[in-house]
Amino acid sequence: MKLFDAHCHLQSPEILPTIGKVMERAAAAGVERMACCGTSPADWNQVLQLAEQFPQVIPMIGIHPWFVKGRDGSPSRPHNTARPAVEPYLWKQNIQTLEKLLRENPGAGVGETGLDFQERFTNRAEQEASFAAHLDLARELNRPVAVHCVHAWGRLIEILREHPAPKIILHAFSGAPELIPDLVELNCWFSFCGSVTNPQAKRARASVVAVPTDRLLIETDSPDFSPSGCLPPNEPANLIHVARAVAELRGVSVDEVANLTFFNARQVFDAI
User: Fold this and answer.
1) What domain count does the chain have?
2) Domain range spanning residue 153?
């Protein structure tokens, strides 16, 4: 059985100090490839270095909407996090650096980028502009894009129509099944994480069933979203639990989910 973790954060301080053991456990669990996503200029070099150190790692770099600085100069990252604070960034001051690094690293994708319209975030205009710039860059360089979306599906679809990109991974997909046909037309793939192991995640679990076979991906989003029964921090070795949940929901074998999502992920990532 071969597994492909379509979205994780190996550079996270919860994972990086023991990265060797983490990678050993991933290999033992059948995780042969993984896309490691940066979230701000502070971790781009770490992500690129991890890809140099471990050939199974596909690097992706971008500015997460939590780290886009608002008009009042405040961070958009929620303040109730237990993690160390990360400096927010004015995306316009870093997009040229991002482009330079992507050109220097032709095997790297774009992201994590996207939109987060939870009430505590007041920088929607800046998020939208940053997201559009990432999509334009992905189109110009023909790279896949890792996208975060929370409470912003209508606006996300509008921006994707205005700024089409070649291949979009909607990570930790939590949208309603009714959104899926429009998103498929916009070159989206749908990646599901440990949340689908929770019976209370009814909308995500319904979407697992509704996603077309050729657009289905699985991920851990390590170190977050530990599958039910797994202690945090989450790590790529736990991907098998996501595969099992998806298999149960779709009424197929775990091997079929593993092979299908591995093949789909290769279609998304192997072009870079």
Assistant:
1) 1
2) 3-269
Give 155-169 pLDDT, tens digit per residue: 999 999 999 999 999
Nearest alpha-carbon partner for 235 in 222, 247, 248, 244:
222
CA angle 90, 36, 269 (to 5 degrees): 105
The candidate with the shortest Cα–Cα distance to 173, out of 210, 118, 144, 125, is 210
Whole-angstrom distance, CA of residue 270 vs CA of residue 22: 23
Cα angle value 205/206/212 (rounded, 5°): 105
pTM of the shown model: 0.94
Stated as kind and residue range, the H or E segment containing 140 is helix 124-141
Of 126 and 234, the structure prediction assigns the larger pLDDT to 234
- Choose between 84 and 59: higher pLDDT: 59
- In the predicted model, is pLDDT for residue 137 greater than 60? yes
Q: How far apart are CA 175 and CA 9, in angstroms?
A: 22
Nearest alpha carbon to residue 62 among 115, 125, 18:
115
Closest CA to 233 of 5, 13, 4: 13
pLDDT for 75-120, tens place per residue? 555 444 444 455 555 678 899 999 999 999 999 999 999 999 998 8
Residue 73 has a pLDDT of 52
Buried b (16+ CB within 10 A) or exposed e, 149-178: bbebbebbbebbeebebbbbbbbbbbbeee
Q: What are phi and psi of 6, to 5 degrees?
A: -80, -5
Pairwise CA distance, residues 245 & 228, whole Å: 10
The CATH number for 31's domain is 3.20.20.140
